[in-house]
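lol forgot to send this yesterday, sorry. struct tokens for the thing we talked abt
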């Protein structure tokens, strides 16, 4: 059963500062509890990650996933290349500058390949959405302060 959700947050930073934090894939486990490990496999010419391997623990399952990123000046999206527990996963951040702040919209669609009760899947997705927005905001502000 595929589920999708979206969530918005306003972050006191520029789109570039926010995308730089997202591009620091290998530090993701330090601010996103679902991520156990993250490793960049390949990069684009500008240094942004093209493919990354993640070990994710969610809904009681641990999964190794390879994802591929697409970057613009105001967005990043990724799609699943391979995984053990998930058939499909697509996610994106869309960044809209608002003065000295940025509105960040996170969209995610997940289709697990193993049966997970609907309530558990929705609760897990909700937690992931909160980390992807509020957790990202905290990390961006921490990086901006030099922490």
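and heres what i got for the seq, position by position
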């Amino acid at each position: 059963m595929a589920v999708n959700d979206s969530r918005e947050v306003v972050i006191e930073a520029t789109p570039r500062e926010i995308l730089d934090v997202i591009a620091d894939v290998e530090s993701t486990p330090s601010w996103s509890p679902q991520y156990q490990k993250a490793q960049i496999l390949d990069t684009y010419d500008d240094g942004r990650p093209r493919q990354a391997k993640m070990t994710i623990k969610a809904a009681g399952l641990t999964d190794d996933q390879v994802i591929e990123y697409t970057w613009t000046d105001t967005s990043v999206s990724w799609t699943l290349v391979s995984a053990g527990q998930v058939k499909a996963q697509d996610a994106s951040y869309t960044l809209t500058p608002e003065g000295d702040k940025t509105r960040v919209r996170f969209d995610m669609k997940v289709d697990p390949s193993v049966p997970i009760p609907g309530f558990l899947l929705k609760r897990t997705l909700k937690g992931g959405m909160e980390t992807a927005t509020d957790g990202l905001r905290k990390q961006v502000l921490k990086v901006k302060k030099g922490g």
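The chain has one domain: 3-144. anyway ping me if u want another try
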